[in-house]
Design brief:
This protein has 212 residues and is α+β, with helices and mostly antiparallel strands. Helix content is 33%, strand content 33%.
Length: 212
């Protein structure tokens, strides 16, 4: 590994969008997502996510900068750092994974019956990160009824206290669906993140339950 880049942010949805920004900014690989809990309850979201990248030093620098700028724009940036030529055991630590870890880059989904198609060219993904399963399911149902979108992945965190629904469809459809989900879910549980990512990068999609 020539260089390891790390960006720490609040919320799962912010981490995915920041990783997408990084992968689009430079020739890097997104190698892992990891998680932690905030040390203080007074934070933008009750979940800390770390994005880990690898590539040559200049590419990693550009990617980390892009991801950090995005997270700062959302008010969810914590810290970032780059290590050139990491030691062997540091490199092992870098590959620790905490997102869909038992199905990473495989075709068998853990959350749904039958793999679903990944976004096609010109499509977007939308993420809505919600407190609680009841609110999340209401948000999902509203999205599916609002626009022509499909569920492509779900991610549960903190024992189900944080649930992220990931949908795919045209940019306009995903945008409308995400907006409707936030309105429908908010009375039932706090919404901690909402993102629309046009043309999501393969370096991000490879972590999800989707067919290539």
């Amino acid at each position: 590994m020539k260089a390891l880049g790390m960006i720490e942010v609040y919320s799962f949805s912010t981490a995915v969008a920041a990783a997408d920004a990084a992968a689009k900014a430079a020739d890097v690989a997104v190698i892992a997502f990891d998680r932690n809990r905030p040390i203080s309850p007074d934070v933008p979201a009750p979940l800390v996510m770390e994005i880990k990248l690898e590539g040559n030093v200049s590419a990693v620098k550009a990617a980390v900068e892009a991801a950090s700028d995005f997270a700062k724009s959302e008010g969810k940036y914590i810290v970032s750092h780059i290590i050139a030529n990491p030691a062997e055991d540091t490199e092992k630590m870098a590959y620790l994974l905490d997102i869909n870890r038992d199905k990473y880059n495989k075709k068998l989904p853990k959350t749904m019956k039958g793999a679903v198609p990944a976004p096609s060219s010109g499509e977007a993904i939308g993420l809505v990160e919600i407190q609680g399963l009841v609110a999340a399911v209401e948000g999902l149902d509203t999205m599916l009824k609002t626009a022509e979108v499909r569920l492509v992945h779900t991610e549960k965190r903190l024992g189900g206290r944080l649930v992220t629904m990931v949908i795919a469809g045209s940019v306009s459809a995903v945008s409308a669906a995400v907006e409707s989900a936030v309105a429908a879910a908010s009375p039932l549980g706090k919404v901690y993140g909402e993102e629309v990512i046009p043309g999501p990068h393969e370096e991000v999609l490879k972590f999800f339950d989707m067919e290539g």
